[in-house]
Design a protein that fits this description.
- By secondary structure, the protein is mainly α.
- The chain has a domain at 23-94: Orthogonal Bundle (DNA polymerase, domain 1), CATH 1.10.150.
- The protein has helices at 2-22, 31-35, 42-54, 60-66, 72-80, and strands at residues 24-25, 83-84.
- It has a two-stranded parallel sheet with strand order 1-2.
- The radius of gyration is 17 Å and the shape is globular.
- It starts with a helix and ends in a 19-residue tail after the last strand.
């Protein structure tokens, strides 16, 4: 029985580790980490890093308001791909006034 249980436990540990590695926090990420997120290319990662150099992002609302090219719809997609702000996933109510879904 132990021979069958060990592979299952190893698989569970690997899956859990993979999920933990998938999260990339925008306030700690290097350029390569950001580029590894589907939907973030070199231009967007450069804009993110340039804004972060001016000050860390307080929350998703702050990220959306400061980085051109990230609106609520993009924030939702990037969050689904593993991007976080201080460990938090995007919640639609975090969109700043004037930025609507799809823009």
């Amino acid at each position: 029985m132990a021979n069958r249980l060990l592979p299952a436990l190893c698989l569970a540990a690997l899956l859990h580790a993979g999920a933990a590695l998938a999260a990339v926090d925008v306030n700690r990420a290097r350029e390569a980490d950001l580029d590894g997120i589907k939907g973030i290319g070199p231009a967007l990662s450069s804009r993110i890093l340039a804004e972060r150099a001016r000050g860390r992002f307080q929350d998703w609302r702050d990220l959306i308001s400061r980085v051109k090219g990230i609106g609520p719809a993009a924030a939702a997609r990037l969050s689904e791909e593993g991007l976080t702000v201080d460990g938090a996933s995007y919640a639609p109510q975090e969109a700043p006034p004037g930025k609507t879904l799809g823009h």
